[in-house]
Design a protein that fits this description.
This is Prophage CP4-57 regulatory. The protein is α+β, with helices and mostly antiparallel strands. Helices cover 40% and strands 12% of the residues. It is built from 4 helices and 3 strands, in the order H-E-H-H-E-E-H.
């Protein structure tokens, strides 16, 4: 038997500590991605209590996983030949 609350599909809000357990990114990376529209937006329960919608975060994770597996996500790798410390020698 499905309860009234289950029918309404109540969303769960998570705080920063729980978000960081689910998504292992730094605060500044999350903030930058939110600003660019690449991460679910936080909302505030009170003026000092930011939270995220758990279902939005889970959807975002699934999307990122699918993009990564299908090679649609551009992965930037640094050119090691240009680094100043421990440069890679040319094989020519």
């Amino acid at each position: 038997m499905v309860t009234y609350l289950e029918q309404r599909s109540i969303r769960r809000a998570i705080r920063r500590d729980e978000l960081k357990q689910i998504v292992p990114l730094s605060d500044s990376t999350i903030y930058d991605m939110e600003r660019k529209g690449e991460f679910p937006q936080r909302f505030y329960l009170t003026s000092r209590s930011p939270v995220w919608d758990l279902s939005e975060v889970e959807t975002w994770l699934e999307t990122r996983k699918e993009m990564s597996r299908s090679k649609k996500m551009k992965v930037v790798t640094p050119d090691v030949r240009l680094r100043k410390a421990r440069p890679v020698r040319s094989t020519d």
